[in-house]
Amino acid sequence: MNFAPHKVPRTLDGHALSAGRPGPLGATFDGEGVNFAVFSAHATMVELCIFTADGASEIARIPLNERDGDVWHIYVAGLGPGTPYGYRVHGPYRPEEGHRFNPHKLLIDPYAKQLNGRLTWSDALMGYQVGSARADLSFDSVDTAHLVPKAVVVDPSFNWAGDRRPRISRSDTVIYEAHVRGLTQAHPGIDPALAGTYRAVASDPMLEHMTKLGVTSVELLPVHAFLDDRFLVQKGLRNYWGYQSIGFFAPEPRYLAQGQIWEFQSMVRRLHAAGFEVILDVVYNHSGEGNELGPTLSFRGLDNASYYRLQDDPRYYVNDTGTGNTLNVAHPMVLRMVMDSLRYWVEVMHVDGFRFDLASVLGREPGGFDPNGGFLDAIRQDPVLAGVKLIAEPWDLGPGGYQLGNWPHPFLEWNDKYRDGVRKYWRGDGMMTADLSRRLLGSADEFDHSGRAATSSVNFITAHDGFTLEDVVSYTVKRNLANGEGDRDGKDENYSDNLGIEGPTRDAGIRAARALRKRNLLATLFLSQGTPMLLAGDEIGNSQGGNNNAYAQDNATGWVDWSDPDDNLLAFVRKLTALRRRHPVLRQRLFLHSRPRRKDGIPDLFWRLPNGRVPTRADWHDPDWKALCVEIRTSSATPDYAASDDVIFAVFNAGEATRVTLPDCPKDMVWEAILDTTEPGAGPNCITGPQIEAPANSVLAMCRTPSGKETT
């Protein structure tokens, strides 16, 4: 296909051009000019397009005549930060061979550090003629420069003012999963001019709230630049969650109050100064370009056959993600892009970790998922990434995609078996006591291998994907009609229970039962081995009205409602985080296996029936056993110098009230009650007798303390 330049100059007045260099990729300002470098293995020509400061008019179209291997590059002297640019790439348009080059379509630099402007949906964004009988085999020649966000040259330098990473140990980590806009948009104490932005996340009201709450690490839903799906825009909705990335280096512009990347850096600096880590939810498994009928915005037009995994018929995409395409991280240059992105966010933006969306895609090799595959090997050997947290969502929609427990050290993993098992136990499902015992101990059945730690399990009751905690105890059926998909989206089975009435109610008895259920779920979370994760808003009783897939609800449904917080629940969560900090036995790195400790010969773990008897095999299969009792100490594998005298006895009673026999204490020690979910405001209390009453549907916790030195 021939492409006329439409009389756009092929040079830039007053700016000398030279060969430049092939690295680093992207647009790099050096104080005197900008080096541009972009990858394409199958292009025949690459043109750099320079725009006016407002991005409205293309003022130069400069061929990149230098090519080192598959990297095209040029240096433009005198150019500086703030310059909008894009690319046009020439080459074969033969979808049946996997090639979709179309120089009429302005392309976003995959390495763009900042994007200005919003995507405007139009049929012209497609590389083919919409409505043609030949579908995507046809070719469209409408220019898209006015429709596409422009990459912007930046100077990423920032005064970090002695910024230091908190480096929270995995044992001490409490994750707070939050959405930049959702967390802050409706908070009454935040300046309306900043609400919904990065700077709002680190505003004084949020820092105070999170500090008192006791969380350590803020995990933000996607902040890489993303697009609003066309079908959502047509319905008057937006891509709220952000799982449609179109740039892996640029912070999402809608969260920038002033359109500058220093705003993100300022957020990180303030969070660090307050002691919080920043973890990013990242989407390297696919892009927002969709399937063969999607738009040509960046990767597709730069080199479709390299950036994406294609089927045996290369016209079509492998779709292990359910979004229409799958990035080809097995290609060395795509892998390089992902690694460069990760390092950029660590080195330039100072983030402390990553949660990888649909991570099984990244570990899939030609023979299937491989924990020692190319991507996982690359990330684990990288010295820049050695000190950050790595968290996998260990599943995708592809073959063999469910890989819970199969990730290598040092990855942590979202544990959906924990979520589902704990919900079912407290809902009253039968035969769940044995499962609860496994979840309380960090799911050793999944993670205790290959030197992995008990903290490998990220335990959660709720996450952005699904019901909020309030809705888990208020709805049995999802209510997603507002998403415009006929309520077909979202999971049908949520292991939830409305406790008598569907949705909000004024019935005092039901409200009390729901409050108790929430406390039981949260207490179980914070008494379990592993890494706890709390969904932002759960601590104040936030509801999404039964919507369990609020991905398109950039409105009051998706935002945390701070107008009427449940202060009693908030106080209870603070109590739980403090309890976990105070007792190291609750947050151990090593697994517990009822093995004698070298320190005293006492096993590190005892399971008990309420009457004090050790459960038999038959007991573990008894559907009527609803009161699980456990006594835990420091793991037997802990070196003597690190061993603690901390001992916790806990009761998880999902049945009727029952008498519980306490374990024996040495003569100089007593049991002290430190938690009772039926009396959330009660303080520590010395227990004088050999038994206690475990109320119906309750969690109790006791610690062993020297006689006469009970907690006050």
Task: Write a short abstract of this structure.
This protein is α+β, with helices and mostly antiparallel strands and 712 residues long.
CATH topology of the largest domain: TIM Barrel
CATH superfamily label of the largest domain: Glycosidases
Mean pLDDT: 96
Largest sheet: 8 strands, parallel, barrel
CATH architecture term of the largest domain:
Alpha-Beta Barrel
Whole-number count of domains? 3
Secondary structure elements and pairings:
Blueprint: E1 17-18, E2 26-29, E3 33-39, E4 45-51, E5 58-63, E6 66-68, E7 71-77, E8 84-90, E9 93-94, E10 99-100, E11 115-116, E12 150-152, E13 175-178, H1 180-184, H2 198-201, H3 204-213, E14 217-220, E15 224-226, H4 230-234, E16 245-251, H5 262-273, E17 277-282, H6 299-307, H7 332-347, E18 353-356, E19 364-365, E20 368-369, H8 374-381, E21 389-392, E22 412-414, H9 416-427, H10 433-440, H11 444-447, E23 457-460, H12 469-472, H13 508-527, E24 531-535, H14 567-582, E25 605-608, H15 617-620, E26 627-632, E27 648-653, E28 658-661, E29 669-676, E30 685-686, E31 691-694, E32 698-706
Parallel strand pairs: 13-14, 13-24, 14-17, 17-18, 18-21, 21-22, 22-23, 23-24
Antiparallel strand pairs: 1-7, 2-3, 3-7, 4-5, 4-8, 6-7, 8-12, 9-10, 11-12, 15-16, 19-20, 25-26, 26-27, 27-32, 28-31, 29-30, 29-32
Helix pairs in contact: 9-10, 13-14
